[in-house]
Amino acid sequence: MKKIINQPDQVVGDMLNGLAYAYDSLVRRVPDTTVIARTLDPSGKVGLVSGGGSGHEPSHAGFVGKGMLSVAVAGQVFTSPTPDQILEGIKAADEGQGVFLVIKNYTGDVMNFDMAKELAELEDIEVDSIVVDDDIAVEDSTFSAGRRGVAGTVFMHKILGAAAESGASLKEIKALAEQVNNNLYSIGLALSPATNPEVGKPGFELEDNEIEFGIGIHGEPGYSRENLKPSKELAEEFVSKLKKEANWSSRDKFAVMVNGMGATPLMEQFVFMNDIRALLDDGEDLDLVYRKVGDYMTAIDMAGVSLTLLKIEDDKWIDYLNAPVEVIGW
Amino acid sequence: MAQTEKWIKSFEHFSRKITDEKSFLNELDSAIGDGDHGSNLTRGVAAVNEKLEQQSYDNLSDLFKDIGMVLVSKVGGASGPLYGSAFISMAKQSKESDDISSLLSSGLDGITKRGKAETGEKTMVDVWAPAVDALKDGTLDQSVIDSALESTKDMKATKGRASYLGDRSIGHIDPGAQSSAYFFESLLEAGVTDE
């Protein structure tokens, strides 16, 4: 393992301090917690809290600021934050209008956020939540923990953040979150695994010429291992899988995101976007009204990409996506 | 020896096993999860030990509540809420009774309520449930624990991160079942189960 770190178990705290120092006009670290909160004056609006294991930077602290999240709660690397920390985050986000939690569908995240929600309700803070499950690589069945929450979560943050900024109520945000989640589809692939600094070795193994389709953002197994192919063929695999789920027709409006997994250069991400454009814009004749490329939901140093599509059910979502923000990572 | 002392001794055994077997637990977890079950639990038991050194206890309820809250706040992942809920549930039950099988039975309830798992889903419940049954009959011994643990090997995971593997989860011992086996072994070794 070759990493710029000190003690492996101090990585999260060191990282949060560096982040809060570098961007002290946007965010602050709530003392003695792993909570990153925005520095804005109280707005009297609904608070938006997200969080999860560390290692997905710029998620989630990179989306804290005006127009997006009120607060992000960081867990240990690839490990959900604990209920006491999430509760601190909820308190920091609460401005009397209720607090909305964005949770990715992982067993640990769901349990810890649920416990935090119970604790917050004991303190008379109104809390509601959405569990994002956009990863179509996983069969949604009673025989698994269900679809995972991956890069589509970033679109969720942006849209809910803009809605909260415009003064939407907790109830309206909940309804919007459910509608967005129902139209959100992601799929990923890995060229090489991630190494969790606390574990010290790669989370799985891939041969030099091998890739894995359907990988999760902590290296959870995908659905098939194949030899590396040209970008165009990787894009074809993604698009054929997504088409089965999203059932689109010509001229349907979509937002699209090509997301880097951490160790894939932007050069390759743009090459991939170019192939996605050819397939979806030229080929399927979709109206790609919003496009984004970059590292948004990473898996430490995993090489690979994911593709997220959001079917635009309401033109207001396009405005929400385009609304200005003051955050580190958008 | 008072019940609280026996339980503290049992927790000492448990923390030693977890700490000694940290890499082994991580390895089991790498096969079907994300490889950090040993690291996460080690962080948790170290924090509990620190708490237990500072505090003295004259009743089980306070002891269990402290252990539960520390585990919930230090372990993270799914194991934190699950082990934490077990102890918090035992803290409530201990106000009614300090009978070992009723305590652990409510601990099991805490786990199943939080994790929504049943037996046969390749989770810690597959050790807890048979161990609690055996406690009720007064037949809990090492062999009960071993065979419960071993049974998770042939199961297909349908809960938690291992469920993404489907059939490929078969053939591996569940890491949460392994740490739970250490937990029940520790109860036997510390004599908590002796009447």
Write up this protein.
- The complex is a heterodimer of chains A (330) and B (195).
- By secondary structure, chain A is an alpha/beta fold.
- Chain A has 2 domains: 8-182, Rossmann fold; 184-321, Hypothetical Protein Tm841, Chain: A,domain 3, CATH 3.30.1180.20.
- Chain A has 8 helices and 12 strands.
- In chain A, strand 1 (27-29) and strand 2 form a beta hairpin.
- In chain A, helix 2 packs across helix 3 (107-122) and helix 6 crosses helix 7 (266-283).
- Chain B has 195 residues and is mainly alpha-helical.
- Chain B has one domain: Serine Threonine Protein Phosphatase 5, Tetratricopeptide repeat (Alpha Horseshoe), CATH 1.25.40.
- Chain B has helices spanning 3-20, 22-32, 37-54, 60-74, 79-93, 100-115, 125-137, 142-151, 175-189.
- The interface between A and B is medium-sized, with 34 and 30 residues.
- Chain B: One of its GO terms (cellular component) is cytosol.
- Chain B: One of its GO terms (molecular function) is phosphoenolpyruvate-glycerone phosphotransferase activity.
